[in-house]
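Model the whole thing, not chain by chain.
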Amino acid sequence: MAEVAEKEKVQMLDIYVMGKRYKVPEGLTIQTALEYCGYHIIRGCGCRAGFCGACGTIYNFTYDPTIRYALGCQKEIEQNMVITQIPFFPATEAEYTIEDLEPEEGENKLLTLYPDIITCFGCNNCTKTCPQDLEVMEFMAAAIRGDIKRVAELSFDCLICGLCAARCPQGLQPYNIALAARRIYGHYMAPKSQHNLNRVIEIEEGKFDAELEELKKASEAELRKRYAAREIESAK
Amino acid sequence: MPYPAYMEESIRKLEASRQRRMKGEIPLISSDERDIMVRKYHPDYRETGKRKLLLGPNKGETMPEELANQLEGNSRVDPDKVDLSKIDYDVDVLIIGSGGAALSAALLAQEKGAKVLIATKLRLGDSNTIGAEGGTQAADRPSDSPVLHYLDTMGGGHFENVSELVWAMARDAPMAIKWLEDLGVNWDKEPDGSMRELELAGECRRRVHSCKDYTGLEVMRVLRDEVRCRDNIDYIEFEPAIELIMDDKGRVAGAILVNLETNELSLVRAKAVIMATGGLGRLHTQGFPTTNHYGATADGLAMAYQVGCSLIYGDSIQYHPTGAVYPLQFVGILITENVRGLGGQIINIDGEQVACNLEPRDILASFEIRECTERHKGITTPAGNVGVWEDIPLIDMIHGEGTIARRLPSLVHKFSRFNIDLIHEPVLVYPTLHYQNGGVRMDANSATEVPGLWVPGEVGGGVHGRNRLGGNATLDIYVFGRRAGREAAEYAKEVKLGKLTLDHVRQWQRELEQLGIAKERPFSPMLLPNYARQPSDYLADLYTEKLQPGLVKLA
């Protein structure tokens, strides 16, 4: 490994994978550093681009015990980093049918699904944990109040990595609670798209059938002609 | 890691030309000029890294070498060691994979009364769908129509698309959007409920529905939750299929699964099998980096091919024109096409625009390759990668300050981790392996040529011709996933399975032996790419020698 460092003129860093020391070249992410160490990852790797939340990772430094959180595919390694991946953490998920969750006056549906959320005592560990920098405790407070819109807005960028649940001393699952809130918002509270509904009805009534059939049978020359003649609506 | 000084110099030139570029837009090139560009510069037309298939339904056709090797791979099981009388799961519909196509199919099959099992390689929902940022096409605005959507799709695909499939996709699109809205997907909307839609390259109307730049993630969160909540849908994670099981009437009748952590096999008997395993980005054809998910290793293409399904346009790969090039950690990841839809232009080292930002993907990719190779006008990173700029700050100048932060939050967030501020600085891009345009030949319900097998989504081919438009991939998966789920459930009510068999595996291995290529071919499906650095020089033969069929090599 020393030759690699010399040849490519990169600095080699010490990292500790579950306590075991490895030397890896700087500039790698936690994920690619694990692969450099020789791990063939089965759990704890997904999109490799910061979208899927499969690679939740907890780390600190040999000289600093403060626990920190990251996505393994997004966080660059640093000298003396001590790493462990948390690809799974036990968490309960409510089972429901979205049709049964219509918001009603006087009932907080989130509390019905997840009665334990009232035990949240505001330690804010969840917020500190979130690799997406979401205001997790704030949307948990909104969930307790029954403010579904607020939960949906504040949690929109959630990747469902599960780190918040891993660190909740009360065993709550902020990411699942937020998911239920966003579905309730999308189904019942967001304004319905009338033009989409109109189009669905037109299609079901067969409005475009004849013209589509005609296109299906058209020659390539005819299609090219019609393609070139399309009027282009400019981007707005 | 902000840009090094020499790259900043080029950025100054880009900034200097911005005012001028805002006024004079470069026009789109004609469809004849397009043909010339792709033939000269697109990787699909390059001869290197390709070879002819030696067996199977597409024998004699040329494919990317990495794909050809998987298609002609050795089975991971020894048929003589598998006891087909010991069935672990007996279901109506088996779904392999768990992305957008798979879960759409699962929900629709369940609604039709089927008992459904989902077997997936990683976690439920881990898929390329989750990384789909741009959005989903559907012609649902009054000034638009499925007819225009049909024409755009055909033109983008160089008129080589299978018309029956384009018809199904354009027609079903608005229904797919509504279905997802009803499940609780939060589409971007105006306060009156009308959809906020974007025009992407090659599209004559604003038609792409998005959920900020987390579109695929938002849909997958909802689909996964819905699957989990429904009775009669079971799922097994970290347990991919490694071989299809047939019955003695030549129908697909189940699959063999392997537990990735313990190597234990499970047998599934299923009246119908929906193969929804996605694409092949992790094969890195022609050495390109990829935007694809860890599991995108062409498993379904190989398994379907080996039971007799032919491929259509199997050699056609989409290289997305805007893959990141810098910093090193982001090489290959996708810069969403919405950036171009919003006005982001492609600029060379001297601050000159390379082509119209609304050219279709293959055309713009060809322009970029020309700029960086033949014309030497690319920007080289310290790691030696070459790219051209995509001028993101221009978006705020066109649409008003705050647009970038509001419309592209995930992109801004990602680069901010590396001290690159995309509201004020451009991003360096180059083509990256994004999508398998072709795939397994199928009909309008995703049924293959082999009874009992459906292939919705990226694993199926034909709907996009030889080039897919932005917003048609996520549409494809919902439309054909729903169609496959419905039809497979109906088929499962009728079919009476015969005796289960693995004779097709024996036959396949015999043919490999006869051609004398069994030893040269890898095991198939690949399951996972292996990026682990392995000091193999001192390892015992057990590790370095190719394992015999019957052993499953996973680590």
